[in-house]
Design brief:
By secondary structure, this protein is of the alpha/beta class. It has helices at residues 24-29, 42-51, 62-72, 87-98, 145-149, 164-179, 191-205, 216-223, 228-235, 276-289, 294-307, and strands at 6-11, 15-21, 37-39, 55-60, 77-80, 101-103, 114-120, 126-131, 151-157, 183-187, 211-215, 241-245, 251-255, 258-262. The chain has a single domain (6-325), classed as 3-Layer(aba) Sandwich (UDP-N-acetylmuramoyl-L-alanine:D-glutamate ligase), CATH 3.40.1190.20. 37% of the residues lie in helices and 23% in strands. A hairpin with a 5-residue loop joins strand 12 (241-245) and strand 13. It is globular.
Amino acid sequence: MSAPTVDVICMGNAIVDVLAYADETFLSEHGLTKGTMRLIDAQQAAALYADLPPGIEASGGAAANTAVGVASLGGEAAFIGRVGTDQLGAVFTHDIRNAGVRFETPPASGLPTAQCLVVVTPDAQRTLSTFLGASQQLGPADVDVAVIDSAAVTYLEGYLWDPPEAKEAFRAAMLAARGADRRVAFSLSDAFCVDRFRDEFLDLLSGPVDVLFANETEACSLFEVDSLPIALRELRGMCDIAVVTRGADGSSVLVGGEQIDVPAAHVDSVVDTTGAGDLYAAGFLYGLTHGLDLRACAELGGRCAAAVLGHLGPRPQTPLSALLDS
């Protein structure tokens, strides 16, 4: 089998984020639970958008952010996801290609490009309301087996496990990656996703997934426990590598019977946590595909996450490749 020519191919929602600052009263008035993601329809998206304070628009989507992060580090990255044939779709396509990510999925007709309305509270926590739009039209036909074969790692986000066609696309990509003896990485994405698909996610961990990414809340939700040490014990051995991020407490990497604890990178001021987990995954996967040991992968992941905590929005404002020398 030939050596991979792409480091990481990412599959997930192709989303344009609308980010705005608001206080917790705004969350209460709109029935939002701080720090979580909920799915909304077009009517709900329009109503919430109308009430949002002034903010910014930025291309996003968890797996897309990870692809951009890998490219910013100097890696070869590709993305599979569906936009609509509208202005936001054109913006997303321009942004991700301009970031150096290979993106060739044709746009979908009939639904607008997905939007994620992000409310950032004074504590820098982000609360997401997502209209999936065209992104949920991703299907098995969009999975190019040759492209999957070319990638060392296929990375998938749990956010897009809901639509049946997208789920089949994910399963097809996993099957192709394993058939080519490549690694499969998966992010639990949000406790909301875990609560809906707990049994299916557990099956993935004992099946095609080689590398898992989760935060502390998601890991505890997966096993329906309140204690992180218990969740870590349950995770140990379920897949080759399990990575649990713990915010200001850093991250833990589980491999075999070993637990590697890595402190968080220093951040002068936390402005917005949107995209931090996505960029952590980018740093970790870049390291994994470039021969770094697991501790170094986690350290690079932490530095990449820290790079987006100081500004509004989910993507780096300066090349992450500078972090490789730190």
